[in-house]
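Q: Here's a chain of 1199 amino acids. Please give me its 3D structure as tokens.
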Amino acid sequence: MAPLTPADKIGNSNFLSPNSILNSRVNDDDEDPGSISDAASVNSTTPLNNEDITEDAIQLSTSNDPSSPIHKLTTRLTISSKYDTPLITPEELTTLHDPKSLKTLYELGGFDKLTHLLHTDIRHGLNDHDHQDFQSRIHNFGANRLPVKAQRSFLRLCFEALKDKVLILLSIAAVVSLALGLYETFGEGTEYDDEGKALPKVDWVEGVAILVAVFIVVVVGAGNDYQKERQFARLNAKKEDRELIVLRDGQQKLISIYDLLVGDIINLQTGDVVPGDAILFQGEVECDESALTGESESINKVPVNDAMNIYENYLPTNEDLGSSTIKFRDPYLISGAKVLSGLGNAVVTAVGVNSIHGRTMLSLRHEAETTPLQERLDNLAEGISKYGFLAALLLFVILFIRFCINITGDHKNSNLIPTEKAKNFINILITAVTIVVVAVPEGLPLAVTLALAFATTRMAQNGNLVRVLKSCETMGGATAICSDKTGTLTENKMRIVKGFFGLDSESNTPFEFDDSSNGDGPKSTQIINQLSDDLKVFVCTNISLNSTAFENGDYDPKQAELAKQRPPKKTFFQTLFTSSKSHEDQIKMGQVSEPYLGNKTESALLILAADKFNLFNKMNLEQHRQQSQPDIVQVIPFESSRKWAGVVMKINNGYRLYVKGAAEIVFKNCGFEYNNTGELIKLDRKLRDLSLHKIDEYANDALRAIALGHRDFVNISQWPPAEFIDPNHDNEADANLLVNVSATASSTKPLTLDALVGIQDPLKDGVAEAVLKCKLAGVTVRMVTGDNLITAKAISKGCNILTSEDLSNEYAFMEGPEFRKLSPAERTRIVPELKVLARSSPEDKRILVDTLRKAGEVVAVTGDGTNDAPALKLADVGFSMGIAGTEVAREASDIILMTDDFTDIVQAIKWGRTVATSIKKFIQFQLTVNITACVLTFVSAVASSNNQSVLTAVQLLWVNLIMDTLAALALATDKPDESLLNRRPAGRTAPLISTSMWKMIMGQALTQLIITFTLHFAGRQIFYGAGAVLDSHANKQLDAMTFNTFVWLQFWKLFVTRKLDEADEVTTVRGRMTRENLDFFQHLFRNWYFVVIAAIIGGCQILIMFVGGASFSIVRQTGPQWATAMICGFISIPAGLLIRLIPNWWVEKIFPTKAFFTFLYYVGFGWLSAKKRAARRGDLEKHSDDEEEVEEHSLKQIN
């Protein structure tokens, strides 16, 4: 590069340092889309309290100097009683800010009247010595403390876990089984087998085993929740207490934020967070309210009297702040907003729970609702307990009748002594209770807990912190996602996404780039590498010196980058037994992610200079500015009236003016442009039209178009030139003469256009693809934002939420106030078509979520701001951002996206569906085992002359507990597959057990019963021939073979269960002949947990058959008996293949649904409940409609 002139040195002047902000002028217009900022200049010339804020002026303690000015307040707050009624209530003060209303303030009598009602002197502040007044203010208006959510103890979490209906059912069954088992153990004598060996008394084991299962479920579930809460608390911990400057007794004092009172005068400076709702009355500040309102644009606050003067000029009017027809100014400061720039004083009107921030926190406190899966599992538990009890009652009645017959007359038990008869009666009762115990799915809650724990562990490795365990499963059934725009779909960081630098010498067209997430043009780095050195200097000097933004001292690039990294991969058991403390250091929430403070537009330009031009590799921004400070002769701050800012620098042969501002203003003053070879080109009509077309294109895409240019004044010895002298300041040029800002075209175009860029809050990487994947998965994504409709539509088109077809649908996009005015019926009617809700308030978002949920949708909400909290809490699943999200949003959410990556929602959907699928697989497996075991126990007990079942209590313990528990672990550890996204979501009304599941359960149960009944009742004829008389040993061999066969049937059924509903929508047998549907061993070795557990089950069964002996009532098997058991057990595989080939609609067609519902209605005592009677009428009507639909479908298949 050629040697640079002093003017070409890229640096900074001291006037841009943070300390000098107090002395610069503030002029802004936040509402103008063409301005550099919605705010304008970030500086203020307003003398606040006629003194500079210095350390000497800040009093750290209450002054006892009697000469200090003290404003004595004699008010209604302190006269008649200790806490008298205030002149204005907190509710009335709330109406000023929610929504922000100048009309309300005017109706109160204006700002002076408001300060009178608050007994506040804006010149002196509150009287720091009047403790009675302070107590009255705290009593009437509240203290500045937000509600703190108490952490639940481990025992409390255990107690809540025990409320689950399935666990209650298990506990009751366990207690009854344990009581009867203890009776058998201690109340009866020792029994011996045929060989004279004492039989072990282990009848109590079943009850204990169920209690252990309940204990494990409660401890694991509560422990997981407790760990997540503790982890969240540690990650979210930050110092809430901070000091702020207030005016009391006429002096500036530092007080704790907790001591702030309504009526206090607070001093706000750049970087402050507004501690309470307030009204600005002095100075001007630029605020970022995006976390509270969802609007990405910064807002300039003006003194309340200026705002009221503008409002009064339009009276009479019904318009207010936020009006699209009248441009009012905003004096209201919202608690939690960030001060980007400026300096000002404000009077506090609400603190603590009465502030917007506090009310939002309070709205988060309501009891969690049950998830769709919980409701279905509760119904399943209720059904199992009901029908298990009926089966047990029926068995008891049958056996009791037989018992009564046998003890009368000349029957075999008539001569028994009373104690023996009582013992036989107890045995009948125990057999009946066994039916209930067998029917109870003790492995089900463990399967649910393990599946959720496994999924949340793996999700944490993907960057998702699951705070509420059940939310993981709920996400699998989600049908709708309502997403905030700012900070969720977009970066919440203004960035340059499109633009051009000069001209391309080859095509003589703008040398443009496209850095947008889904842009297909050349990137800025490619273009910059081809620019001339001089053009690079012009652009970088303009960006760095013609700016009021400055470096963020809290920004740590390494920490910000580390926060976006995913944790290292660990196995499920490594995660359970290793500390996560090292990972917590990595994923601290709320990291500072913006390198510059101040105006967002100027920060975006500085980021371009730093990242693309590598401007600050050797010197930082402040050093650059200090180096160039001697060459700066005039600074022209941004003003909303002219929409541009400039800086004049000394060069070797004169002076150079750098201009930056709204593209339509700056460009009409540009007549020249450099190409990439350094040649200066005069703009002709074609080139001007190309640039004007780009400006219009950016506007249509909701981009803020900014132009950068310069002009050289050569061969002059001093500034300003005579023809540009400002009449009021002889040493400065008149800004209005340097650049023409009038509506008419400029006759002279002396500026050289260096760059034209489009600035936007860009989409996050991968968002557009993630939205498409959600659509593929049947999940509708809706954007809900506080931005205007034009911006919302542009962003939603870019991320595939709005399609070209949606643009012609009037209900596809709507503004919040319009949506809010609709009746509930109208909202329910149009909400399926609604994709974008713009200019929406938190209440609008809450109404949308509530409407969707009432329509039967399972709704997920994503958000990062305080304004998103109510909807996050109301939703079935709430997602918040871990880095950019506010504490309130994180507190309200169920899942935290630790890396702020929206694409992780797709992972959450896949894991959620994996969890739901794993649970359904286990239910399918468990119910098959239980139905077979119950029927086998029932029939064999009834058929037995001594009322004994073919399966003993210990054998059932192995079948019901060990196998089920291991099966739960095997099926709960499946990993998600991309094919899960090709299925429709379950939603809120889908049955827990689908047609394909019932088909497999009943088909497999029937197969197993045929095999076991054949072996049990015909085994004697098969192995010993007809008429053979068998001794006790041979009979026990046959019983042991039946048990062995039963277990191997379940073993191979475990593999069949790996497939669930992969071909549910396929209606032909040929179409179902796919590997996806029929290969039970597909991806088998992707889940080593399953392989190992299957090996353990098989190994344990072989071990039991060889060494189980008397404990398991096992007799050594012969070779043919082993072969029979193994071959018959393997029949589960071909039976599963045959069942999966049968289309679901065949089953639905032939199954007697009406008769089945009628049976359940009467057997389940539904006729006793009016609610059940009404539901039955609905079921019958639905069944009638379904029959017509199936009939129509069948005809189509035949044709």
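Q: Can you summarize the key feature?
A: The longest strand covers residues 338-350.
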